[in-house]
Amino acid sequence: MDEIDQPQPLSPEQEARRKARRARARRAKALKAAPPSEGKAPAVEPAKKRVPAPKKKVNRPKKPLTTRQAKDIPVMPPAPAARLRNRHRSIFVSLFLFVVIPMLVTVWYLSTRAIDQYESKLSFSVRKEQSESALDVMGGLAQLSGAGGSSDADVLYQFIQSQALISKIDEQFDLREIYSAGHSRDPVFSLKRDATIEELVAYWGNIVRIHYDRGTGIIDLRVLAFDPAQAQTIAQEILRESADQINKLSKVAREDSMQYAREELDTAVERLTSARQALTQFRLRTQIVDPFADLQGQMGLMNTLQAELATSLINLGLLRNSVTEDDPRLAQGQRRIQVIEAQIAEERAKFGVGGEGPGGEDYATLVAEFERLSVDREFAEESYKLALSAHDAAQAEAARQSRYLVAHIEPTLAESSEYPQIPLILGIVFAFLLLFWAISILVYYSIRDRR
Question: Is the pTM above the cut of 0.85?
Answer without folding.
Answer: no
